[in-house]
Design brief:
With 247 residues, the protein is an alpha+beta fold. It is built from five helices and twelve strands.
Length: 247
Amino acid sequence: MWIVARYLPVAPFSLKSASATASGGKTLLVPTPYAIKMALLDAAIRMFGLAEGERLFPFLRDLTIAVALPNDLVVMKGFGKIQRLLKDKSNKEKAQEAQERKHWPMQPTIAYREYVYYRDAFQLAFAAPAHTLLPPGLTQLLLAINYFGKRGGFAQLLEPPYQTEELPVSAHFIDLTPTAISAFHIAGTLQMLDDCAHTLTFQRANIYTADRITLGKERILRHVVLPYRLQRSSRGYNWYQYIHEEG
């Protein structure tokens, strides 16, 4: 059994990979399973309280997630000015300059940024692991999510989520949480998407505790090849297009 939700982006989407730095790094083309599950957890806590969010967390953590994207994805490239911590605070000249400009302990720098434009709506589908049930109230949680990735990547739910036994083939759903190697298009685009490991606990997922999440242990990477080909590229954008089967 699947629950499917259809969203229309109302702002560009951006989410850097787990290996990206603060001042650079390309954006992923899709929200990661980790980001989606944390969005669901955030909605659960806001709607039902902390205790209920903690109870629901194991169900949300183990969800299988698939996505159906628009035919065209356009990545917009650009540079922006940001503030970051002064690297060498012992450098008196830089420290004095930062204090005079009232930036201390920060310093201005340039950062590379990318944003993905979805021309049409996209769909997210959720299923529970074998022999388990979908989390109670999942439909309500999907109603409460209004952005994916970084803050500002707003999306609007277009219709109430619905249940279906099988995902429609015509929608071209892509599994974002594969547990085994499967066939993929050789001309597709590889994405390394982070996900929750089965060992991730609510205590570690809680950002207000001192317990840390380690990449490769509680937070794992899934290698997913999206059936999208880089159609055209320039200094300012990349245009990806869905690879339709020929013949």
